[in-house]
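Now for our specimen.

. . .
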Amino acid sequence: MPHTRNNTDKLGFAEVKELIKAHCLSEMGRQMVDKIQVMHNFDQISKFLGQANEFKNILQNDDALPIHHFFDIKTLANKTRIEGVFLSEEEFYQVHASLTTVFAVIAYFNEREGLYPNLEALFEHLPIEKAIIKKIDMVIDQKGKIRPNASRDLQEITSGIARAEQEARKKIDQVFKNAGSNGWTADGSLTIRDGRLCIPLLAENKRKLKGFIHDESASGQTVYMEPEEVFTLNNRIRDLEFDRRREIIKILTALTDELRPYVPLLLSYHSLLTKLDFVRAKALFAIDIEAEMPQLVNEASIKLTNARHPLLLLNFKKEHKTVVPLNVQIDEHTRIVVVSGPNAGGKSVCMKTVGLLQTMVQAGLLISASEASVVGVFKQLFVDIGDDQSLESDLSTYSAHLSKMKEFVEQANGRTLVLIDEFGTGTDPQFGGPIAEAVLESLNHKKVKGMVTTHYSNLKIFASHTEGIENASMLFDNKEMKPLYMLEVGKPGSSYAFEIAQKIGLPQNVLNLAKNKISAGQKKVDTLLVDLEREKKEIYDTRIALEKQQRQVNALLAENETLKSYLEENKKALIRDAKDQAKNIILNANKLVENTISEIKSSNADKEKTRVLRENLNAELQKNTIKPIVAKPLPADEEIKPGDWVKLADSETTGQVIEIIKDNVVIAIGDLRTVAKKKRIIKVAKSTVPKEIRRNYNSQTGDMASFNPEIDVRGMRTEDALSNIERLFDRALMMGFGNLKIIHGKGDGILRKMIRQYLKKYDQVDRMEDEHADRGGDGITYVYFK
């Protein structure tokens, strides 16, 4: 794109790149972010978008990618190319750690073969040469230090150093002990001076021992001497250490020579690590701005749904505010959108959002818009935003704008996206307006796509009757006198100049003078625009309210149908249980009567015995009789309240009051809930309700009170999410709830798809719907039961 760097920076693309760089783990990744450019090749853009989207899916829905170390092994590989040069212990450790990461990443994707095709392409045909790691392992340990047994000579030298150090220590301890017993030593213990172990001696005794004095105390009263016997041993240790260093260099040189044939492969591994760091940073930034992957088409068009400016979104997040989403479409039918409306109403932000999101897509970045958005590919991007006056070129603001217009008209074509802010301003509106209209007509004739913002009425009128150009306005609440930051396509917007001036406090007489100076036609047009905008706002608010009421009605209807169905089933069960209970009572009573008669006969009708048997019979019959619940009349001044026990006037069904809504009472009857009018219920004494019913109710209502028909499964693995949803589903059916709310997030839609496919197998499910777009859209699923 011509002037791409300057244009994209005006849109905020430089800030976007800085935010992505902050997520990089390595300098190589940060350098790659600096090189991000706007691309024009459809396949290349699609590949880069796919990589970012797949990595975002890994971060949100899969196990963590085993990325632990990012070192610049390209520099190390180039160093290895040079004959006679060797890598240090630390550098070999970096190569080893980087290769371990590379092989772990490749193994990770091999386990998920076919799941992330765009990321798998990063290491396609890249061999896994574990021989490099094995060679380094033989020489360098896990802490990055050379192994004592890296060679036979090194092992012997190391052992010799250990023996000499032990002998020197033993010798100096003996000398120190003897000197101490003679009273020659100063206070303190053995100490290190110039890398040598020394004895602290009183200065007056320094000639009583043979040795080399390395230092003395500040007061001069103590000297630090290395005894003669130890001096020779320490020199021997130093010689051995020099031998060890030479052997280590010899080993590292040999290892570097073995590594030299693998330099091209090391560079390939470096490239993979750099790309992974780069793509990871893009994915993390996408999560920050709640970005999705739009549908990509190979044509010059753009359709944004619920789009938000990414930088504005991040700033608002810090302030716990939300960004009003943007919906706009630019294609062959609507080539140029002319946006009008009040100052500070969001016109420029709207245009910059379109330009920045288009730039991000063509740079391979996910965008803060719905995945339903459709974004094409433009060959050129022309931007005229801000003041480009130049002292060097002696250009005024308007001259600078005209220079841009000249360039746009000459170079733009059907695959150009043009963004112009405050179109035509900077000179006398009487002349600036017609020039801007002529430029707009020329751009439209060349099939250029774009968006312009303006206050000029002639441009609004021109757009209203010109094919390919569409008016749009930023909505404004003319009652509260504040912008709504919502784009309304299809009609121009008023600048609300007089209304804003009045709110600011401009004197009324000045306002009246100003109103008298504008033409009657212009005044009529502006008044008409204000009225249209007000009516549109009222219609929009009414529609939102109606949609909310309709959802509530639908939910109540669904709940009512569910309750009715469960009530019918419960009614049959109660009748069946009552019949079974009555049958058992009759059978028991018959047996009791027969046994009583038999005993009376066997006792030859003894009066006392007969009386006792009759009393036992009456007691058993009384105990097995089903006692009806006697209703306690409701006093005139006593209101029914939640927790009271009641029964329906036209039945013997008993339940407990859960909630009172105006003249309606919600009653819990066993596992069911029902709604009845107050006049249809009778309050009963708690003591008349059988303990079994009260006990069952207490356990059920406790569960019901704590039950929440909503679940959030974001971040869960699919099997865990389905398991939790199934448990919630069973409890909701048991307790008579009409619907469930499942929050699963958007992502790639994989989790949403799996959940819906799983729930379709249940006959109890009537339908599933997305949440309203303003409250989560397809990131939330409502499940309605039959």
Q: What stands out?
A: The first strand starts at residue 191 and ends at 193.
